[in-house]
Each structure stands twice: as C-alpha cells, then as structure tokens.
C-alpha cells in the first residue's frame, strides 16, 4: 500500500499567508518562508503554495516568494495561482517548484494541461478543482474558477476525468463548502473523484480534527490530505496527524 501524504497549504495574498472560511473573510496567518521552514522540519510530505488572488486580479504569481520558499525546504513543492501559459509554468519550475497547480487557465483552455504535461511531464502538472455542491450537476458538484468566484457549469467529477485524459498527473480537490470550517473533508465529493480517476487525489477543505484525516483516506479514498489553518494556528503538528494515522492502521511516511 502506498503511504498517504500530509500536505500543509500556504494560501498567500500580498506576500503573506492568509486563511478564511469558504474562501471568504481572510485573516493573516504568518510569513510564508517561516511557515514553510517549520512544516519542512515537522515532516510534511509536501507543501502547496497558492497565490489565491492572482487569477482574480489577473496578475502574475509572486515569483520572489516562490524562490525564497524553495530555498528553505527539501520536500516536493507545488505552486498555483495565476498560472496561464507554458512560459508561466517554466518560470515557476525554474524558481524551484516541483509541480504547478492550474485551475482557471485549464478550464478556459484545456489544451494547456495537454501542452504542459507533454513539455514538462505529467508528474508536475496538478489540476486544481474547487468544487461546490450543486444538485443540477450530474455528480452533484460544480467546479469553480477565479478563487471560487466564478461558476463554470462543469461537473467537478467529469472535469477531473477529462483532466486526467489530457495529462494531469494529480488532482488537488478542494471542497468550497467545507473550506476553513474544520467540519471534516467532504467525503462524498472526495470518494466520487478518487474512484473516477487513476491519478492521485489530494483532499482539501475541512480538515479540523485527527479523525477527519483518517476518514479522508479510509472513506474518501484520497491519496493525500491537505490542511492549512490547523497547522498555521498550531492546533496540530504534521507529526500529531501522522502518529494518529499510524495508530489507526494507515501507512504514512516517517
């Protein structure tokens, strides 16, 4: 059995890490470089950095922050937010990221996934899907873009399948309904996407208690679980979560 990954997420706005609830009410949560160093030390398996207003503000990602974080950590590092072109992807990878996460640009031009995976390899192309429950959709969830501001009309599960076919190597799946609530991951959404694709799925949105992480793996069938506020506000360390998972028979990396 492949070991499950625990991934802290840095949502960055104007150079600082922030956290909100359901993508709203953002509060300052610290300096990205210092937090990245801390999570590297705690034994995080990977780190995700999302410039959460870059697409909405139609600007480029803060490359200097990416460079500074990459210098300080020794774990795989995924960067997303405002990435629109092959050139953007090249710049992010050259700045020290191992993977790039694309959402808005991929919805607006799905050939970007195809071109990027051909050029850089599917292992470094992550399709980010921000999903919200919508009973009108075939599988009950709609994908959103522009930092959760714009409904796409796309069924989130079908879009995950299409993304895999186009060459994405991983899905970063965020439940907008659960984001920042600490009520637990959306297991229905996570399971539907995990069972629909053959690439790894990262569950995101709602992780607040230790059992939530076990549920994401056992019931949600996720390959990794991502969280932000519980780490930023020191409610749990990465080690706390991994110890709990091991006690519950889930294989994690040391």
What does the model show?
- 35% of the residues lie in helices and 27% in strands.
- With 254 residues, it is an alpha/beta fold.
- It has an 8-stranded parallel β-barrel with strand order 1-4-5-6-7-10-11-12, surrounded by 7 helices.
- The relative contact order is 0.16.
- The mean pLDDT is 91.
Described by the principal axes of the CA atoms, the overall outline is: globular
Main beta sheet: strand number and arrangement? 8 strands, parallel, barrel
Beta strands, count: 12
Reading side by side through the largest sheet, how are the strands ordered? 1-4-5-6-7-10-11-12
Average of per-residue pLDDT values: 91
What is the percent of helical residues? 25-40%
Named CATH topology? TIM Barrel
Order of helices and strands: EEEHEHEHEHHEEEHEHEHEHH
Uncertain ranges:
none
Strand composition percent: 25-35%
Q: What's the level 1 CATH class?
A: Alpha Beta
